[in-house]
Design brief:
five-stranded antiparallel beta sheet; 5 strands; about 130 residues
Length: about 130
């Protein structure tokens, strides 16, 4: 299974157990999309760039305030949530949820999915 297949499988499994998640993506730390499951109105490149920027700001804030390594960035809006979670040192898992999302469950499933993404990114590339 290629890395792209592994990332897509991790996203598919995450979405299967998290029905309140409206969009999800794996993006590189420098803002490039690697895998996504997005509705038509969400632009993949824009989500990737915003995700990387938010994660970078969160990392700087956590480090600058002496709080250690960043675990996640959580944005609450009146119509839902945007959650970003580091998935290893080279990827970010981004989820956009509805307002009715059970945040604790989404975070739990995101942690599992972020671990899978990190493992996929760390594994040697599959040869065909």
């Amino acid at each position: 299974m290629t890395k792209a297949d592994q990332l897509a499988a991790a996203l598919d499994d995450f979405l299967a157990v998290s029905p309140e998640v409206e969009a999800a993506a794996v993006v590189s730390a420098d803002g490039l999309p690697m895998a996504s499951a997005l509705p038509p109105h969400v632009e993949e490149d824009r989500l990737a760039a915003m995700g990387a920027a938010l994660l970078t700001l969160g990392e700087r804030a956590a480090a600058g305030l002496g709080k250690g390594d960043l675990a996640q960035v959580f944005v609450e809006a009146d119509q839902g949530y945007v959650v970003l979670m580091a998935a290893g040192s080279h990827a970010v898992l981004v989820a956009v949820t509805s307002q009715s999302a059970k945040v604790g469950l989404v975070l739990f499933e995101m942690r599992r999915s972020a671990r899978r993404v990190a493992e996929a990114m760390a594994a040697p590339a599959a040869t065909e």
